[in-house]
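Data's thin. Show one?
=====
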Amino acid sequence: MMTPDNFLGLPEPYAGASHARVAVLPIPFEATVSYGHGTAHGPQAIITASQQVELYDREFDREPALEYGIHTLAPLALADEPEAAVAQIAEAVAQVAGRVPLVVGLGGEHTVSLGFGRGLLAALDGPLTVVQLDAHADLRDSYDDTPFSHACVARRLLEEDGIEQVLQLGIRSICTEEVAFARAHPDRVRIWYREELRGGNWQEELRERLQGRRVYLTLDVDGLDPAIVPATGTPEPDGLTWPETLEILRTVAGAAPIVALDCVELAPVAGLHAADFAVAKLLYKAITYAMESQNHA
């Protein structure tokens, strides 16, 4: 029997739209990347690799995906121009987010998160807090002559009515402009630099800032160490380890409901399956944490 070509390779009824409580939306957009290329191929690489991920999760002692079900949607066909593509993404996400408890975006470059966030705000009642795992702050006002660059996505999200704050973890590459912006807006931007996460005392403040909030989680895969995910356009050394990444996700899920998430910036390399698989496995884990967070909200 051939494995179904969907996220995790789920058979019916677990992958059916009428059964699934999670919808996965591939968003293969790439227009503003500034170093390595290939993020447009990220969504399919994640879906393909996910079909090798075991459904059984030892942490939960069960197969969570068979409880909540995951329906994989067709990839979006998008305009080449970033502003137009953002509008298309927002419209598509708004339609999906109103129908399922959790919508998951597969990028594509990080610019897709602006459209994703706009779509969530249009569909969901009330404000959102963005939790961003990333090597970069993405707080520039413009980069390479466009405010819609992947290097500007956090700044653009903060301009959206309904985004209360952006909480960033794992940052280790940042420019003077971004530092100044974060310092000028401490109530809306909190950066935990890579070295701060080694201290073991970051969890309490993160929980405090999430209390009473709802979370939109954005996972830029370059937040992880290149030893885990080398296949990304702008890799940075000294990234998050696998256990550290899972600890962040557990902390977030234990503090507030995660109502949406995306995963961006995988630029698959032929023959380098480990990176695709790691991202797919991380995404399955993040989805399970998100669904657990909603159950306990």
